[in-house]
Amino acid sequence: MRDHAAKSGLRLERGPFRRRGKPVTIHWRDRPLTAIEGETVAAALIAAGIKAFRSSRDDRPHGFYCGMGVCNECIVDIDGRGGERSCMTAVQDGMKVEPHQHGGGLQALEALGPTPSQQPEETPFDCAVIGAGPAGLAAATEVAFAGASVIVLDERSAPGGQYLKPLSPSHEFSAGPSDRQFRERERAVSEAIRAGAEIRTDAMVWFARRDETKFRLGIYGKDGESRVVARTLVLAQGAREKPWHVPGWTLPGVMTTGAAQTLARSYRVAPGHRIVVAGNGPLNLQVAAELLAGGANVVAVAEAARLTTPSKIGALLRATIHAPALIAAGARYRTILARKGVPLVEGAVVTAIEGRENVEKIRLTRTNGAGRDIVFETDAVCLGYGFDPSDEIARQLGVDLVAAPNGNGLVISRDDDGWTGVPGLFVAGDGAAIEGAAAARGTGALAGMAAAHYLDHAPDEVRQTTARRVRDRARKFQAALWTLFSPAKRPEPTKDTIICRCEDITHGQLEDAVERGARDIGTLKRMTRVGMGRCQGRYCSAHVAAMLGAEHPKEARFMPQAPTKPLPIGAIAREKTEWKGHREVAPPKLPITADRDAPRIDIEVELAIIGGGILGVSTALAAAGSGLDVAVMERGNINSGASGGNAGSLHVQLLSYDFGERAQAGGGPALSALPLQRDAVNYWAELEQRLDADFERSVKGGLMVAETEEDLRFLEEKAASERALGIDTRVIDSSELRSLAPNIQDGFAGAAFCSQEGKVNPLIATHILADAARAAGARIEERAGVLAIEEDRDGYLLTTARGLVRCGKLVIAGGGWSAATGELLGLDLPVKGAPLQMIVTEPAPPLIDQLLAHARRRLTLKQARNGNLIIGGGWSATLDPLLKRTIVDMASLEGNAWVACRTLPAVRGLRMIRSWAAMNVNIDGAPLIGPVPGRRNLWVAAMANGYTLGPMMGMELASMICSGEVPARLRPFTLDRFNRST
Question: What Gene Ontology terms describe what this protein does at the molecular function level (predicted)?
């Protein structure tokens, strides 16, 4: 990745500003650069003409994009700390900055922050407000004015948000704030403080949960992690700019208009030498005018709407009536462009951005299709095509989304005062719906008053009336404004257009996955990795949902996960008491629905299988290959349950809590299943070869590390028991451990090494097997959950969400939901749900080849092919009674992070980019497979190590069904072992 810094001089010198910060020296690739104290690393690099900040998996350069800490495109390595957001990190004298390579180019990962010394206390407030923009400051002012305690939490270094962004400490006003927005910021901040609100900046809320009475927030900042508990919560997180998916939009030098404005207003830096501003809406005119006023060279402004047509006169008049000052400002911006000779190209959208390692040209196409494309040479493109609400925390807390009244995207469901329907939870500003800054002030004030009223503080009627008037007037203006700036129709992306810029996923790859059967956003995510990067799908989910034709708002976004943004794992690593066994639960009864356009089914087959996970599709593959007419009935989508939520470990040796006194049922059942697990790992290899597939399988052994001599004695006993069953496990000393895994914590006594363990990628493997099953003749019916089962002498009649299925033979393979399915037949199956959770880090340099576990701690850790570390080990998730779904547990996150950091210290130099919870299976430590006693042609299959065992046990089950016989080695694993009527 080469630098593009031949030209410099991008600092804006005009206007009523003067430098305040002193010059400091930072080093970019060992080259000294002069920066200004108080500015960000991103601003300093761009001022020096450097645009490419990181490289992608396929070595494409990426650079500064959103400017607000959301996209993570501007990450760099600073003083040995990998993946720091340059737009959120202030320069320091002597700082060493390197471009960030995908997977991490650092040989040694420095810890990203302080190690927690103790459990943080929860600081109580009556109300917490997330977001210190116009809405958040207004809400906090009203809550405090009513007499309640309130804290405002904002990730940035100073309050104001995107709209009221402050001038950075690197500059100061020469004679007071220079324009209306700077003055309004000073007023809003001072009003909130005078009212009694506490404003805490540098405070990223990464975790939010609600119990019966309070909201609990996990917060991360420069001083580490802290907690806040509040009786009410106001979400005022603002919005982010929508992506514009055209070829070249990920090139360095392409950024959002808001990012360009942040550079110019806060840091007095121009985004380039030849700037094109393009998009849809008034912000683009404002930013272009501000850049020109600062001395930047704007070569063109492109507006998708046609503003000067007779049909827009009425909208212009209405907008002028409701906000004459804003319309006057817009006219002033146009005058500035005209005076500077900058062309304003109306009715044109960006259809391509060209360049090799930096933007070089931009191509515009008329929206009416007339004329030839318009091309400008440029080294900086600012794109502003509208906004999306920042709704991630609201969705974590169970708030519904609804279609926006104007049909432009999704908004948060709420009442007239911002109440979401969740007790104590309110939303305001553009984080609820895109209505503009003036409306945000009104909705913020009303949400604050509603929160105060929830806390039994009566609202001031005069203030309430004033806030409603402000909001209503602003909404009328906004409606007229968006009639004036009618939204642009997006160009169709080419197959090579990148949609997910974090993972470099193209439109063509997504189309291929849809053709292979992806029908929902979660399945498409698992099949392609779209939305799995640092931005967590913020810039690709809307496109993916549109591709799939998602009609229900809940199906139009990726599931919100903790952390809301990448979080240093070490920040939450705290030792926890580890429990025996799993937390058993009855899995929630999930709604069973069918796709509106899915064909109705009324079929008769020889064999029906209930459950479309790894076990169900593997059984179908083997049964169809044996000549059976088979159908799989799946409630949701293939691989959407525990199989898709699996980490992909191929276990052969026992985990520490499956042996000895800590083990379920004394450990005997789990131990007896080890030969099956050994053979199952071999069967994965056979399948891969037979199907000519790539499961991303890797068998480089498993290490269970011992910290002490006592741990080693435990491993010796465990290994001896495993070897007696034909498992290749041996205990190695510290020297050999260091040779096999040099990044393991120094001083560990040794490990048990099992050469037969490994991993596969469950995101792709189940789909490969499902495709093979279909090719063999099996039917796989998705969104066909079973509602009822009737048994007669001819077999079984299944009533599903999509119709009727008659079969002579039936298999229950529903994972944690198998017992619920059994109840439809009057069965009491000994299968419980066990909610477990996993952590995924950002991509890292090669750290560990083996499957890693711990002799007396709960840990499984592996490194995926793309560099992510996948961390688990049986840490329990929780079943949220309010959300009625499985969610991650804060204590489990902390404990799992602590064990991972203790075992592999480099983990402290990584960020957690997502976590997830899934419903695993709990029986007695061993698999359950075979016929149901007393029932004709009915079989059940469920197992805790289901992903390891799935393909082979599916083959075995199909053989049983065809032959009517249970092989001798599987007889110990049938229902007969429970000695009770089923």
Answer: iron-sulfur cluster binding; oxidoreductase activity
